[in-house]
TrEMBL record:
Any one GO CC term of the record: endomembrane system
Cross-referenced InterPro entries: DUF1232 (IPR010652)
Name of the protein described by the UniProt record: DUF1232 domain-containing protein
Major location category of this protein: membrane
Name of one Pfam family that matches: DUF1232
Membrane topology: Multi-pass membrane protein
Record's subcellular location: Endomembrane system
Occurrences of domain DUF1232 (ranges): 28-63
Composition-biased stretches (Low complexity): 85-97
Protein's UniProt keywords contain Transmembrane helix: yes
Organism superkingdom: Bacteria
Region of interest (Disordered), residue spans: 84-109
Keywords, comma-separated and alphabetical: Membrane, Transmembrane, Transmembrane helix
Length: 109
């Protein structure tokens, strides 16, 4: 169970990580740093301790996968929305540029 002192620390670390990965200037640095941390033998808690050693790697991996997948999801949605708006604008432009020609019919013969 988390104590009240641990929760702000964990939330502040999560918020920092999220803001850092969403900043396009630092995004790849954070992603590669996270991957390097996961494969590095130097951890906050070494992996030789069975469960405790895997927790920090699991937390970093979870944060990384969650944030990268959310970024990709948002980009796909933005792309779909942009394409849909472009299609709507081109359809509106096509209907406004059409010209109507009124012709009177005359009987032949």
């Amino acid at each position: 169970m988390k104590t009240s002192a641990q929760q702000p620390i964990i939330e502040s670390l999560r918020t920092w990580y999220r803001n850092a990965i969403r900043n396009s200037k630092y995004r790849w640095l954070v992603v590669f740093g996270s991957l390097l941390y996961l494969v590095s033998p130097f951890d906050i808690s070494p992996d030789v301790f069975p469960i405790i050693g895997w927790l920090d790697d699991g937390i970093i991996a979870t944060l990384l996968v969650t944030e990268v997948s959310q970024l990709l999801f948002e980009q796909v949605n933005a792309s779909k929305k942009k394409n849909q708006e472009a299609a709507n604008n081109s359809a509106d432009a096509a209907t406004t540029t059409e010209q109507v020609v009124d012709v009177e019919a005359a009987p032949v013969g």
